[in-house]
Amino acid sequence: MCGIVGYIGKNQALPILLDGLKRLEYRGYDSAGVAVKTADGVFSAKAIGKIVELEKKIGEIKSPFPCPLVPRSGRRAPLLKRANTGIAHTRWATHGAPTEANAHPQTDCQGKIWLAHNGIIENYQELKTRLAAKGHKFISETDTEVIAHLLEDLYDGNLTATLIKVLKILKGTYGLAVLHRDEPNKLLAAKRGSPLVIGLADGEFIIASDAAAIIRHTKQVIYLNDGEIAEISDRDFKIFDADNNQVDKNVDQIEWDQAAAEKGGWPHFMLKEIFEQPESIANSLRGRFMAEAGRVKLGGLEGVAERIRQTNKIIIVGCGTARLAGLVGEYMMEEYAGVPTEVDYAHEFRYRKAVLDEQTALIAISQSGETADTLAAVQEAKEKGCLTLGVVNVVGSSIARETDAGVYSHSGPEIAVASTKAFTSQIAILVLFTVMFGRQRQMSLATGQRIINELIALPDKIRQVLALNDEIKRVAEKYYKFKNFAFLGRKYNHPIAFEGAIKLKEISYVHAEGFASGEMKHGPIALIDENFPSLVIAPLDSVYEKNYSSLQEIKARGGKVIAITTAGNGKIKAAADEVIYIPKTLEMLTPILVTVPLQLFAYQMAILNGRDVDKPRNLAKSVTVE
Ligand code: F6R
Question: Where is the Glutamine amidotransferase type-2 domain (predicted)?
Fold first, then answer.
């Protein structure tokens, strides 16, 4: 996710801002920028790529001011000395590709109001249209720029009061840092749904989206709550609620060191990313429902809506975990949209002679958007005249650019090599595809509404599953010395059995195989004995009885069973050695809830086996070679 740093105080802002951005580099980003207030105006620079590119840019920019802003060879520019207020940002593209124009800080028509924003403004399109009609000139494709223009439009001489008004108009999420060229000694911060912390140092304040950017200066912090706005000067700060009432806040003490702070206090990125899933799923779905109409709004597919209507066959491609999300999509598409769907490894698809035509849609799934095999599959399908659609996390990546249209999964940067939050978001996006394809065809209004309502409830249900981490750790403690595991599932959770196995083997190096439950008796059950435990995925769904029979077959051969089932299913306790419960949801959504305990199990097993969880051996985060 993007990073925000802001500074006001006794020191020069620019070096502190750049240092803060570097402390946030671990979060992943694709462009960066700064804006500092000087005696003569606001100095801003932006660059695509790493912070060093931004530093180079700052060095190269011919300062519009009488003396250079960046001191060279130790010479301290007097002007820079007075530049003691500023904001900076690392952007991980969501609306619009990583370009300088789209990088933050964004500004208004007159270059007076500057802001850095994390989050997504859902109603930006409608606000942009309204403001453009009033003569505002937009230069970026971002949702953020509308905030600057809206502030300009409503500005009444007091940035704080204007921001309070503007925030009431915005729908969506934000962490914001804002300054105005003509309001001296003022830096504003605001938060709704996206973290923002204020660091209180001696004669200076550092605001940041993440304590990692603050910790070097101070461990005294104030965490803003949703709806709160901070008005900060070089000496003092005031915090207001959404109705402009001043509120008192506690000062907290950060206990982490720098390394821990980068992981937000989590021991590993993988665990952090597993625990981010309530938010990452909410971000994937945000602004994409028309709940009453039982429909979804996928802006990225609007241009090809007619071709989607004419599609009579879908092929989903991807590699590894991404392909497994596709397999869940196959069950959904056929059951709810009635469109014949097949799933292939991207690396197989590119070499086989699949039967394709212009009514075939190829859906390519990729977190990175750079997987060479998946990209080649897209190119092959395009060549054959198919409609190519992407489900991609990284904005502006090769697959996002190569496909005819697509939907970003918005799960935020995934740093651990093993895919976790990106996978559950991919499934969530495929649910949206299913509703879109389905409502154009056989799906009723009531079914569309039911799916949407269940999607809305998902983040809370994921939170309930995450609360089982300690319980899952205790299970892992009993099993971590076993050398082989079977993962079993059927129908929607058949791909999740494979996902559970891939997660376990890639980070703990313990051998694990996924099986379709019904396949066991056709061969694999010969493996089962007291040293070969099985994880049986058996939610209370349309195939529960079948899964239960598989579980009993394993028990009859002396195999140990860890069962995952739906809350309320007490009966299974008599048969399984361990039981993990997930909340009730629609059958098609159980894969998302079932995946979470499997991720936690793999993580705990890897820790107990002493593995390098975030960087397992022999693996790369993005596989850009065939
Ligand atoms: C497993 C994992 C990999 C990726 C695969 C595709 O945890 O991360 O199997 O899913 O390499 O990568 P993307 O999604 O970037 O195309």
Answer: 2-235
**CB distance 506 to ligand 1 below 6 Å:** yes
Judge if 377 and 429 occupy the same domain. Answer: yes
* Long-range residue pairs from 96-101, CB within 8 A, at least 24 positions apart, any chain: 96/140, 96/141, 96/142, 96/395, 97/141, 97/395, 97/396, 98/30, 98/31, 98/48, 98/395, 98/396, 99/31, 99/48, 99/140, 100/31, 100/33, 100/46, 100/47, 100/48, 101/139, 101/140, 101/141
Apex 249 CA angle, 248 and 251, nearest 5:
140
Which tens digit of pLDDT belongs to each residue from 369-382? 989 899 999 999 99
Among 321, 427, 504, 506, which is best to mutate for testing ligand 1, by the most ligand atoms less than 8 A from CB? 321
pLDDT > 80? residue 60: no
Model confidence band, residue 603 (pLDDT cutoffs 50, 70, 90): very high
Residues 108 and 217 in one domain: yes
- 129 in the same domain as 48: yes
Ligand 1 pocket check for 367: Cβ under 6 Å: yes
Name the domain count of the chain. Answer: 3
Ligand 1, atom 6, residue with closest C-alpha = 319
Q: 218 and 86 share a domain? A: yes
Radius of gyration for the alpha carbons in the chain, expressed in angstroms and rounded: 26
Quick one: 193 and 299 in the same domain?
Answer: no
Which of these three, 186, 220, 254, is where a domain ends? 254
- Please check whether residue 620 lies inside any domain of the structure: no
- Residue 181 shares a structural domain with residue 214: yes
Whether residue 322 has its Cβ less than 6 Å from ligand 1: yes
- Entry pTM: 0.80
Supply the CATH number for residue 598's domain.
3.40.50.10490
- Residue 621 inside a domain? The answer is no
